[in-house]
Design a protein that fits this description.
Two copies of one chain form a homodimer.
Chain A (H helix, E strand, L loop, with lengths): L1 E5 L7 H11 L3 E5 H5 L5 H11 L2 E8 L7 H21 L3 E5 L10 H17 L3 E5 L10 H11 L4 E6 H5 L16 E6 L9 H8 L10 H11 L4 E4 L11 H29 L4 H7 L15 E8 L4 H10 L2 E5 L5 E6 L2 E6 L9 E9 L2 H10 L4 E2 L11 E4 L5 E6 L32 E9 L4 H12 L2 E2 L3 E5 L2 E9 L6 E6 L2 H4 L9 E6 L3 H10 L9 H11 L3 H9 L3 E5 L2 E7 L6 E10 L9 H19 L1
Parallel strand pairs in A: 1-2, 1-8, 2-3, 3-4, 4-5, 5-6, 6-7, 7-8, 9-12, 13-16, 17-21, 22-25
Antiparallel strand pairs in A: 9-13, 10-11, 11-12, 14-15, 15-16, 17-22, 18-20, 19-20, 20-21, 23-24, 24-25
Helix pairs in contact in A: 1-3, 1-10, 3-4, 4-5, 5-6, 9-10, 10-14
Chain lengths: ~625, ~625
C-alpha cells in the first residue's frame, strides 16, 4: 500500500512538514495549497527537497468551486486552473484534487457540470495533469461519491477521474459497497480520515474533529476493503483536519499518522479475509484477486493480564508504607538493581528507587502478560513504538519494552497460565516487614484490576491508537467526569474479558498546562475478594483512607435504599458504592503520595464499570487536599 | 431584579464558589446537587455560611427522571424525593428543580404524568417545599416549556410551578411570546444562559458550550422581556455549563457572570421600552405595568474613534525606529512622565518607557474617544470593570481607565469633533527626528484603523462581553485563521461606522500555554490614503518589512487577474492585497519587536474586512522568523 499524508494534517512550515513525513516513512504527500502559498520555498525548491527526501508529490489540493457556474465564472476558473497547472509542472506534480462546488455554483444541471469538467479535463490534458474530482459532504449540488463518479463517467476523458475520501462518504452514511462498481482506472486518489461519531454540522465536524484511522469510530477497514476490491492500487493518503494535531509537535504527529496507516493496512487485509471467508472463498484466492499489496504485521492476541505495575520515587518510604498498610508483602530487593518487589496475591508492584533526585512518587511502568514478548515487541516496533532499553544481567529475564505516548514504559512479559512470573526469582529473600505489618490473609485472590493514567492533551488520540494497535486493547465509549477544576475526559481501553483495563484520563487544560508530566494524579487499582475485610485490616495497620464526606452517604441512601447496617459499614470504612443491572462495586482510595494513589475494589456479580458516579467525589476530596496543602505551603 | 447563579457554573469547592458569589454581589445561588454531595460541609454548615455571606439559597437542583415512570419506579422516586426534601429543610431551602424525564420515562401520557407530579407536589407540600418543573430540550416526552406548563395547570397544586430556562427554550427555537400567557404565580424560577448558535446535538451543546448572557447569540433580552411582562418577580439565575468557566479562576468567573446579568437587565429594559413604543404605549406606562424592577446603567454611545494607542518597553529604541521609519513624527516627551508622543495624521502612539526591567515591547493601553469619560467610566464600573489609576498633576487631563480581561488598560477619553486631543499639549516641543528621518507628507489623513489583541483562552468570552457592555462595541461573526502552530480564532468587535475596530485573537493552546502574557503577537494597524506612497517612503527610510513569499503573488494573480504593473508594485513593496464586492484592501506589516508589530492599510471603496485571506501568510512568515530566532538562540 502506498502511504501518503496531506500537509494540512501537520503543524509547522512546508519544509518542516516534509522533513517529518520523510522521517516517519511516508511514500508521498499531498501539498495543501496554502502550505505552498505561504512558503518561502519556490516550487523548484520544493520539488528538489521532495526528491532528496524520497517523498512523492502525489496530489496538489484543493482546487475549489469550479463546476456548475456561469460562463463568466467558468472563464475565470479555467484561467485560475491553468495557472495552477503551470505551477504543478514546476513542482513536477501530475494530479490535482478538484472539490465539488460549495460556494459559487448556481446551476444544478449534470449536463452543464459535465461539460465544464470536460473543459477542465481537456485543459489539464494539455499540461499532462490528471484531475481527481471529489464530492464534498457539504457540496452544494454534488455531495455523494456516486454522483461525482457519474459525472466522471459522463465526461469520459482520460484526464478526469474521481477521488474517494472516507470522511465525505462515511460522515454522510453513504453505503460503501458500490465503491466496488467504480472502474479502478477512474479512481485517481483515495484519502482516509477517521472521526468520532458526533451529531453536528458536517463542515465543523470535518474541519476540527477528524482523527487518524483507529482514533475514531468510522468503519475504515470496510471502506478500504471495498476500495481494494475495486482494484485500486494508488496512494492511500491521510487528510485529517484536527485542531490538536495542527498545533502539536510535527515529527511526533507524523509518526502517529504513519502508525494509523500501518494499522489500517492490517485491518483492511483482515476485513478482506473475513469477507472472502463469508463469501465462501479460500484465503489463497484473496491475494490473487486484488492488485493492491497489503503488508501484514506480527499477530498478537489481547494481553492475558497485568504482569506488574512499577512506581518510582527518589524517597520511596511513603510508597512502602502505603503498600504495607494495604496488605502487600515485601518480597525482597532485586539482586542487581535498586528495586523492590511487593506482592498481594497475583498483584505485583515494583518500587523503583532509581528516580531522579527529588522526584515525587509516580507511575513509571506497566507490565502486560502476552503470548510471546518477542512477537509483541516486533509488532509494536513495526507500529513505530519507541523502544525502551533496560540493562539486564546475562541470567535475568529480558523485558521487551516500549514507550507509551505519555512516556509510561510498557513491558511485554511472558505470561504464565497460573498467573505467576518467573522474574520474581531474581528478587532476594523477603526482608523484614515494617513495624506492625504482617502478611494479609485476605489478599490471596488479589490482582491488578485497572490502572488509571493521565494523558497530555496533545497525545490523547495518539494514546488510543497506540494501545489499540500495539497492545490489542479495545476502546470503550468515553465518559466525562466533573471535577472542581473542570471536566475530566475518561477513556477506558480494555480486553474483552476485562483482565486488562486501562483508563486514560485527559485532565482539564488548567491542570495540563504545566510542561511537567504527571501534574494530574494517576492510580493503580487492585481487586480483592472481600473489600470490607481488606479495608478493616488496612485500617488496623493505620492506612490513611481518602475521607468521603457524610453527604455522599446520605445521597447513596436516597438513591439505592441500602440496608442500614451495610450503609453504616460503608461510611465507617470510607468505602464507595455503585450498583447497576449487572452487579455491585465497592471501592476505596488511599491518600496521594507524589502524583500516585492506590485504589482497592471488589466487583460483585458482573459489574464491569469503575464506579463512575463516585469519581466526582474522589476528585472533589483530592482537590480539597491539594488546596489545603497549597495554602500551607504559601 | 434578583440575581442568582448555579454553583455548577463555577470551579472549586462549594465553599469557594459561595465566597466568590458573595464577592461578586449575587443575591442568591442555586445549589447543584453534586456540589453538596461532594462537599465536606454539612447542610447546616452551608446554611450558616450562606446566611453569613448574605446569599439566598434559592434553588436546589436538579432532581432528575421523576415523571412518566412505572409504579415501582415512582415509589422509589418519591422515596428519593422525600430524602431530598428532608435535606432541603436542613439547608433552609424551599424550592427544588425537577427536570422532565430523559432516561427512565416509559409512559407517554399527560394524565399519568400529571398524577405523578401531583403526588410529588403533595409530598413537597408536607415539607413546605415548592417544585419547579422544567422541560429539558432533550426530555424524552416533555421538551417544550408550554407542555411543562400545561402539566402544571393540570395538576393545579400550590406546590407545583414551572421553571423557565432560556437555553432549553431558545436552543429549540420555541416561540417565547407565549411566556406572557403563563400565570406569574406559577413561574417558580427563571434560569438564563446564552450560547453561540451551533448546529450540533442539543445535549452536547448545552453541557459544554453555554456562555453567560451577552457572550452568545441568543435573543435573551426578548426572552426576559416576555418573562417580565408575564409578571414574574423572582430570581433570574445563571445556569451555564461551560468547559472553560468550570476550570477558570472562580472569583473572576463570578464577576464575569455578574456583569452578564447587569447587562442583561439593561438590555431587557431596553427591549421592553422598544416593545412598548412599538405597541404605542408611552414610556411612563412601562414602569407601572411590570412588577419586576429593572435597574438602569449610565448610558453610553459607541466610541467615536481611537484616541491613542500605547506601547511599553524597557528599551524603546526599536519602537522609536519603527515608528520613525513608518513616517510617524516625534512630538516630544511628556512634561512629567517618561513617555513620548509620536503622531501621523490623527494616529497617536505613546511610547511608555516605564516598563519593568527587560520587559519586551508590548501593547499596554488603548484610548477611546467617548462623549463623556466620566459617564463611560461610571458605566464600566457598574459593570464591575476594574479601575486603573494613573498619577496626574493638577493641571493635566485625568484619564478614566479600566482594565480589560487581558489586562490591556482601556482609557476613556474626551473626543473632539476635529479628531485632535487636548492632552497632547502636555507634551513638550518635538525633539530632533532621528538621522535620515523626516516628517512624512503622505500621512496627513492617517488614523488608527484597528488594534489586534491576543486573549488568554480563559478570558475570551469574558472579553467579548466586556467590550460589548462597557464600550458598546458590537461582536461580528468570528473567523478561524490557519497558522503553522494551529488555528487562531479571530473575533472582530467594532462600531457601526467602523471608526473603532478591535480584533480579539485567541491563540492556539500551545502558544497560550505559557503563564506569561503576550506570548502571541499583537499589533496596531494604521490607515492611510495612499499605501503605495507610504510604503515607498518607509522603504527609503530603511523600514524592515515583513517579507512576503513570491508564491503568494503567483496565487494572487491566479485568483484576481491583476494588472501586471500593479502586481509588480505589490510584490516589489511586500504589499498584500484583497478584494471583495465592496472594495479593495492593501496592507503591509513591519517586522516584530518584542510581542508587537505594526500594520499599514489602505481601504478602497467600502471594503470592511481585514484581509483575512492574507492572514495565513502573515502567520507563516512570522512563525518562520520565530523558528529562526529560536534556532539562533540555542
Amino acid at each position: 500500500m502506498r502511504t501518503g499524508i496531506a500537509t494540512v494534517c501537520l503543524s509547522g512550515t512546508l519544509k518542516e512538514k516534509m522533513q517529518a513525513c520523510a522521517i516517519a516513512g511516508f511514500d508521498g504527500i499531498e501539498i495543501f495549497e496554502q502550505d505552498l502559498v505561504t512558503s518561502t520555498l519556490s516550487p523548484e525548491d520544493v520539488r528538489k527537497m521532495a526528491a532528496d527526501l524520497g517523498l512523492g508529490l502525489d496530489l496538489y489540493q484543493p482546487f475549489r468551486d469550479f463546476d456548475g457556474v456561469t460562463p463568466d465564472l467558468l472563464k475565470a476558473n479555467l484561467r485560475r486552473a491553468e495557472a495552477k497547472f503551470g505551477l504543478m509542472s514546476r513542482l513536477g506534480m501530475d494530479t490535482i484534487l478538484v472539490c465539488s462546488n460549495v460556494a459559487t455554483a448556481t446551476i444544478d444541471d449534470d449536463g452543464l457540470r459535465a461539460s465544464q469538467l470536460a473543459q477542465l479535463a481537456e485543459l489539464a490534458g494539455d499540461h499532462g495533469i490528471k484531475v481527481a474530482y471529489e464530492a464534498l459532504a457539504w457540496g452544494k449540488y454534488v455531495n455523494d461519491y456516486e454522483h461525482a463518479y457519474r459525472l466522471v463517467e459522463m465526461v469520459d476523458h482520460p484526464n478526469l477521474g474521481t477521488c474517494l475520501d472516507s470522511f465525505h462518504i462515511l460522515s454522510r452514511d453513504w453505503d460503501t459497497a458500490p465503491i466496488e462498481d467504480i472502474n479502478a482506472d477512474k479512481i485517481f486518489f483515495v484519502q482516509v480520515a477517521d472521526a468520532p461519531k458526533l451529531t453536528m454540522d458536517v463542515l465543523s465536524w470535518s474541519r476540527h474533529y477528524r482523527v487518524f484511522p483507529g482514533e475514531g469510530q468510522f468503519e475504515l477497514a470496510k471502506f478500504m476493503g471495498h476500495v481494494v476490491r475495486a482494484g485500486y492500487t494508488g496512494p492511500v493518503s491521510l487528510e485529517v483536519f484536527n485542531d490538536v494535531f495542527r498545533q502539536s509537535d510535527v515529527e511526533r504527529t507524523a509518526v502517529d499518522a504513519m502508525r494509523s496507516l500501518i494499522w489500517l493496512e492490517e485491518q483492511s487485509a483482515k476485513w478482506l479475509a473475513a469477507a472472502a471467508e463469508a463469501e465462501g472463498g479460500g484465503s489463497a484466492a484473496i491475494r490473487r484477486r486484488y492488485p493492491m499489496e497489503l503488508a501484514t504485521l506480527p499477530k498478537v492476541n489481547e494481553p492475558a493480564g497485568f504482569n506488574f505495575a512499577e512506581v518510582k520515587a527518589d524517597d520511596t518510604a511513603q510508597l512502602e508504607k502505603l503498600l504495607g498498610q494495604l496488605g502487600f508483602a515485601f518480597e525482597g530487593r532485586h539482586r542487581t538493581k535498586d528495586v523492590q518487589l511487593w506482592t498481594m496475591g497475583q498483584a505485583r508492584v515494583i518500587i523503583n528507587e532509581q528516580a531522579a533526585s527529588h522526584a515525587e512518587p509516580a507511575i513509571a511502568a506497566l507490565g502486560f502478560d502476552v503470548d510471546s514478548p518477542v512477537i509483541a515487541s516486533a509488532r509494536a516496533q513495526q507500529l513505530k513504538a519507541p523502544v525502551v532499553a533496560r540493562k539486564v544481567q546475562a541470567d535475568e529475564e529480558v523485558f521487551q519494552g516500549i514507550s507509551a505516548p505519555d512516556s509510561t514504559e510498557i513491558f511485554l512479559c511472558q505470561g504464565s497460565p497460573d498467573g505467576t512470573a518467573a522474574w520474581t526469582a531474581e528478587f532476594g529473600q523477603a526482608g523484614e516487614l515494617g513495624e506492625g505489618l504482617e502478611r494479609s490473609s485476605s489478599g490471596a485472590g488479589a490482582v491488578i484490576d485497572h490502572v488509571n493514567l493521565a494523558q497530555p492533551w496533545q497525545h490523547f488520540d495518539e494514546a488510543v491508537l497506540f494501545y489499540t494497535s500495539a497492545l490489542a486493547l479495545e476502546p470503550q465509549p468515553f465518559a466525562e467526569v466533573p471535577s472542581p477544576s473542570g471536566l475530566v475526559r475518561s477513556q477506558v481501553m480494555q480486553t474483552t474479558d476485562g483482565a486488562v483495563r486501562l483508563v486514560l484520563n485527559l485532565a482539564p487544560a488548567q491542570q495540563a498546562q504545566s510542561e511537567v508530566r504527571k501534574t494530574y494524579q494517576e492510580h493503580i487499582a487492585f481487586a480483592v475478594d472481600n473489600l470490607v475485610a481488606t479495608a478493616r485490616a488496612a485500617r488496623e495497620r493505620g492506612l490513611e483512607f481518602l475521607q468521603i464526606p457524610a453527604n455522599y452517604y446520605e445521597d447513596l441512601d436516597a438513591r439505592f435504599d441500602l440496608e442500614p447496617g451495610f450503609l453504616a459499614t460503608l461510611q465507617e470504612l470510607n468505602l464507595l458504592y455503585d450498583r447497576d443491572a449487572s452487579g455491585e462495586f465497592l471501592h476505596f482510595y488511599t491518600a496521594t503520595v507524589g502524583s500516585v494513589f492506590f485504589e482497592m475494589v471488589e466487583r460483585r456479580g458482573n459489574y464491569d464499570g469503575y464506579g463512575a458516579p463516585n469519581a466526582p467525589v474522589r476528585h472533589a476530596v483530592q482537590y480539597d487536599h491539594r488546596q489545603h496543602a497549597s495554602l500551607q505551603r504559601h
